[in-house]
Amino acid sequence: MFNNDTINKFQSIETPFYYYDMGILRQTLEACTNASARYGFHVHYAMKANFNPKVLDMIQSFGIGADCVSGNEVKAAIEHGFAKEKVVFAGVGKSDKEINLALDADIFCFNVESVQELFIINDLAAAKNKKANVAIRINPNVDAHTHHFITTGLDENKFGINIWQLPDVADALRKCTNLQFLGIHFHIGSQITDMEVYKSLCTRINEMQDWFEDHGFPVKVLNTGGGLGVDYYNPDTNAFSDFESYFNVFKDFLNVRPGQEVHFELGRALVAQSASLISRVLYVKNGLKKNFLVLDAGMTELLRPMLYQAYHSIENLSQKSKVESQNLTQDIKYDVVGPICESTDCFRKDVDLPESFRGDLIAIRTAGAYAEVMASGYNLRNRAQSVYSE
Ligand code: LLP
């Protein structure tokens, strides 16, 4: 991601900033669309992972759909050229205003998360004399074996409709004449790297499909959600996820009916490796027990380490060439911290780095997903700018 030319260009840019390697983004999208096209699978991009305009434009140019979780995301998807028949709208708390906006935009489908929501969408669609396509988001009670803060498919989570409520769903669908039942939707969590988890999900999807068919509701769309993880430890050697193995699981274990569509909602796996947060060392504090690198970026720019104990690889770009040319070891341990007035404002403790100095450029890798979009203005901080490779 960083050759000497790139690092030299960084010298004159105000830090902190997000650096997007558009080549990596393109390669990732190519790998994903090639692998999904093999089985005729449809991919929607989970826009919440990153709605940077240039990122959206490139993703859209691959013919990928958009998975939105707010009215503003639906609006942005349409504005960025995503085809309305490839826009889906999920979310446990859609407001009436957001539902109306999506109805007016004639999106493909609402992924509905409660029985009550079915009636609300039905009423709002009726008022517009429209029929809304709906998929039922089912909480499958499948453990994603990921960090508990980003698990969504267990009974204890707020998402989706529990299996024991399905008879109520069937009753509601029969009553709601302004709804068209399209299919079933699942999403069990994020940063999933164990393919066995997806096999269990397939089993549950097959059971649910049988249930709907047995109750007189043919399933036209199976939406398996997203969640495919990326390698936060080796961003260079694993620049994108193993899309082939991922899609193969669904091809092998899902009971796909003739003419049925299979949908995926990938967020992280499409964008995570394409960006890094670039920051400068403001101060080096050598304490009795600890050495601290105080950066000009903090939890306001990248919250994941503080919120989910997430690991991000950290590199000193300014010392990189010295380390490589002189075969130096990275033998100092630093706690890499931000400037925010919170003790949790620490990217990682005991990071092995070469001796580092004020002004050194530091890259925090794999920051393309759930990073820029989760930035805040806490401490009245400016928003970090975005810089692109091309
Ligand atoms: N579909 C639904 C219904 C979702 O809730 C999500 C993510 C996705 C798809 C996309 O999941 P992905 O492929 O990106 O794993 N902020 C957390 C992740 C939250 C994920 C929320 N839902 C993080 O930084 O790890």
**Helix/strand/pairing category:** alpha/beta
**What's the overall geometry?**
elongated
So how many helices?
12
Order of helices and strands: HEHEHEHEHEHEEHEHEHEHEEHEHEEEE
Q: Termini separation (Å)?
A: 13 Å
* Rounded mean pLDDT score: 95
Return residue spans where pLDDT drops below 50 for at least 5 consecutive residues: none
Instruction: Give a short account of the largest sheet.
Output: 8 strands, mixed
Description:
Its cofactor is pyridoxal 5'-phosphate. This protein is an alpha/beta fold and 390 residues long. It has two domains: 4-17 and 273-388, Beta Barrel (Lyase, Ornithine Decarboxylase, Chain A, domain 1), CATH 2.40.37; 22-272, TIM Barrel. 31% of the residues lie in helices and 23% in strands. It has twelve helices and 17 strands. Strands 1, 11, 12, 13, 14, 15, 16 and 17 form an eight-stranded mixed beta sheet that branches. Strands 2-3-4-5-6-8-9-10 form an eight-stranded parallel barrel, surrounded by four helices. Strand 11 (275-286) and strand 12 (291-295) form a beta hairpin. The structure holds ligand LLP. Ligand LLP is lined by residues 46, 49, 67, 90, 150, 152, 187, 190-191, 225-228, 265-269, 304, 308, 370. The site of ligand LLP has 21 residues, from strand 10, helix 10 and helix 11.
